[in-house]
Request: fold
Amino acid sequence: MPSNIQIRLATDRVNYTIALNQRIPKIYTPGEVITKQNEFMRGHGTYEENGDLKASVAGVKEEINKLISIRPLKCRYNGETGDVVIGRITEVQQKRWKVDTNSRLDSILLLSSVNLPGGELRRRSAEDEHMMRKYLQEGDLISAEVQNVFSDGSLSLHTRSLKYGKLSQGVLVKVSPTLIKRSKTRFHNLPVGANIILGNNGYIWISPIMNVEESSVGGFVQNLEEVISKPERETISRLRNCIQALAQCKMMLYDTSVLYAYEESLKYDVKELLIPEAIVDLGILTQERISMLTSG
Amino acid sequence: MSRKELISKVGLRLDGRRADELRRIRCKLGVFSEPDGSAYIEQGLTKVLAAVYGPHQVRGNRLKAQADAVIINCQFSMAVFSTSERKKRPRGDRKSTELSLHLRQALIAAIEVEKYPWSQIDVYVEVLHADGGIFPACVNAATLALIDAGIPIKEYVCACTASIANNNQAMVDISHEEEILGGPTLTIVALPMSEKIVLMEMSQRFHLDHLKSVLEKALEGCKNTKNILDQAVQNHIVDVGASTGWASTGEKVKR
Reply:
């Protein structure tokens, strides 16, 4: 029997906000008039009524030249070309896969935009269409890049690089896409002994470091035989809990913040990181280290 | 107690409010982590939870998907323990189905439906404690949850009830006790900023002469509710935004 089970009353709820003392920008709420002048262009999160530009979401104003938009603090993933995303196959159709990427509509991965086993320069035959379920089937996780965005807002993905493809052993963490900091590299090799992919769509993949020689198979192999040792599993679980804690505290996620959180978390057991007090403590400690970095 | 004494001689109601006072409203955004948006609201003793999923791909019946508008799917349910007499089923009865439809109608007025073709938005509301004015509380909670989910709406949709006491005095935000003792209840859903009425419902007939004053009271109630909700949304955004350092919203952060 597990000896210590934590049960608490709703009144003992812990407040996760670790607000910094800083200038608060003007906050717009739906229906609020942004400007009465009609020389501005309306961007996302705004609409025009009777010549006034009004906000349609709650958030902060973003102004680029004449374009005004309001960015909400939480929303579904809006894809842009070049983003790296993690997705889960929901459907196998003719010549394409449907992928759930936390976006408004399911994304599309065409058979012609994946690397098939047997080299780059290979014609796609009818056989490949029949074999599609052998490559990727429903429930499989993939990493991919956004190739383009269709007019209805759905995304077209591609995996035409050896970096992308099917994911094998690891842990998926889902957070809000707005918490992922934009940066050039999405694949991080953390010195603590794990790989991490920060998908722009808020899906984060943590995997152990595998010593596989990348071959021309195009990322359709799932090495499920390799046994992951217990310390490695603990590292991954700790990373997962750290990311979850940072997300709970609504802190931005990028390689440095994850790494700092990991280092600060070492004084706790892995499972203790699920306790609200530990989460807040971890958030504050990480926040402090990041602010030291920016000021120093 | 007779119907005539809903407001006492000194102008106080059964629970000590004046005729134009709302019950205390407390609300919280982002109460769940799994849905895209969620909210909790307390209006007096009426407690409602709302969760919003979407906009997402239409699941189930594909044929329902529309090329020009988003499908809005609402589900109203009341917890079996929410009323003084235990309910047999939380949803699916006639009253719940009707309220689901009304809620959908109210939300369609505010959501920019044409922005999201081929998708669907699910709104689930659950009454935890019913003490009069459950439908208005549901509408208000759903609005907050939509805002939390970052779904564009034209403006706040607010709802309020009003009734008539002592045969000529209008009063706002009717509690359960007053609902039983008193007479007709007028429920309105409005867009308070543009003063448009989206939905209006009366539980009983009353004289046409009173309609104007009761309607005005209810609209006033909607406006006051909107101000309270707006304050709650602002506080929530400040809390969340300060932790992220406003980085996700384009404000420059030093590295």
Remarks:
- Chain A touches chain B at residues 17-20, 22, 24-25, 27, 29-31, 45, 47, 49, 54, 56-60, 62, 71-76, 100, 104-106, 152-153, 178-179, 181, 248-252, 283, 294 (CB under 8 Å).
